[in-house]
Amino acid sequence: GAVVSQHPSWVICKSGTSVKIECRSLDFQATTMFWYRQFPKQSLMLMATSNEGSKATYEQGVEKDKFLINHASLTLSTLTVTSAHPEDSSFYICSASWDRTAYPEQYFGPGTRLTVT
Amino acid sequence: KQEVTQIPAALSVPEGENLVLNCSFTDSAIYNLQWFRQDPGKGLTSLLLIQSSQREQTSGRLNASLDKSSGRSTLYIAASQPGDSATYLCAVSGGSARQLTFGSGTQLTVLP
After folding, report:
1. In Å, what is the CA distance from B45 to each residue of B33, B37, B49, B75, B90?
2. B31 at the A interface (CB within 8 A)?
3. Interface test mutation site (partner B, options A103, A107, A112, A113, max chain B beta carbons within 10 A)
4. Which end of chain B lies in a sparser environment, N or C, as judged by fewer CB atoms within 10 Å?
5. Residue A6, SS3?
6. Pair A84, A24: CB distance under 8 Å
């Protein structure tokens, strides 16, 4: 159980365009979803935390107008990279958790490789 | 602010060896600690999760320990195999949103 999917698994877009990445919890309801980015040979850095039906909380240094996060339902969160630039090229990973337990575990999606040309 | 450090950054061992990966964290107020495996270009595979009230967890050839008071965890891999080659990440959960803070990882290579 506790499967999280991401779509697409990879995407190439041109500089200046926007791209949307979907994160879905397939067999549980995710009260909280997290978005991370990972540069080559580096660890995961938390970008933002989103709770269903409320605005996302962004980490310091993450531009909220550039990385739009929507958590419209208990099974879906989306990350939209607006006006993408080559420096936004990265590996984006989402995770989801069910916070109604005492010790919530995060379940990770397989990641989305974004390349901006 | 929580900081997680993993030592060594890279490790190369011959097949069959037992090995230990280390993880340390600065803030002991954690909910849990997880060890993940990441293959090149892939997502994360959760290996073991230790709740803050626990001391260790075991799964097959893997054993993870947690000493919350000293801010340390170790991942022990017994009888290593080439298929164990990957990057191993340690992460601690804390804060109001239970967000994870990741270490920089240990890149393990097991030579046949």
Report:
1. 14, 5, 11, 15, 12
2. yes
3. A103
4. N
5. strand
6. no
How does B10-19 read in b/e, with b if 16+ C-beta sit within 10 Å? ebebeeeeeb
**Residue A40: what are its φ and ψ, rounded to 5°?**
-50, 130
Show the tokens assigned to B20. Answer: 């230990």
B92 neighbors B32 (Cβ within 8 angstroms): yes
For residues B72 and B69, what is the distance between their CA atoms, to the nearest angstrom? Answer: 8
H helices within B1-112, ranges in order?
A: none
Asked if the C-beta of B101 comes within 8 angstroms of chain A's C-beta atoms, the answer is yes
The tokens describing A35, both together, are: 């978005």
